[in-house]
């Protein structure tokens, strides 16, 4: 073990190529960590190619049906954390209730400080995808994305944007912050899609 990491010799069905298992939960991000003194002033705007775009308060989201989802997560920097349990809202249910247009093909996640990331609609709507407020039975800390972060465990973890402020549905794909800086547009850890040329 070194720096909380263990070189993986475990189940290759759970640990993608060139990943190491960690028992910690590393904190990686660009920009500052936001702290909300009054959560009633926070909101999440969901807009774009929808029949019923909506601005949600924190209370609105917490009053929606909740789901628990167990998964493994894989960071593009090389660590994998096994056996996570998240609690939050199904992205599939959220999109269904707001009425997706037929020409909605992609989703753009907008976070604090203008940070964005993009993904195909099919990835956003996967059964395992959610907007999470809790991890392993505890409310997310500010460093890990409080009050809500996206969780897409089948993609590298940079796609699971922290500090969400808006979700936009679009017809065409638009690269986000890291994608504009050389990261892969898809980010499949099982195909080692770290960079745009992978």
CATH class bucket of the domain at 41-163 and 172-181: Alpha Beta
Largest sheet entry: 7 strands, mixed
- Name the shape in a single word: globular
Q: For the record, what is the CATH homologous superfamily label of the domain at 41-163 and 172-181?
A: Oxidoreductase, molybdopterin-binding domain
The CATH architecture assignment of the domain at 41-163 and 172-181 turns out to be Alpha-Beta Complex
The run of helices and strands is EEEEHEEHEEHEEEEH
The number of helical segments is 4
Strand content: 25-35%
Instruction: Assign the CATH topology of the domain at 41-163 and 172-181.
Output: Sulfite Oxidase, Chain A, domain 2
Q: What's the rounded overall pLDDT mean?
A: 92
Report the oligomer. single chain
* Alpha carbon gap, first and last residue: 29 Å
Uncertain ranges? 1-8
Structural class designation: mainly beta
Range of helix content: 10-25%
Counted beta strands: 12
Taking Cα atoms only, what radius of gyration do you get, to the nearest Å? Answer: 16 Å
InterPro entries: OxRdtase_Mopterin-bd_dom, OxRdtase_Mopterin-bd_sf
Pfam families: Oxidored_molyb
Protein name: Molybdopterin-dependent oxidoreductase
Domain Oxidoreductase molybdopterin-binding: 31-178
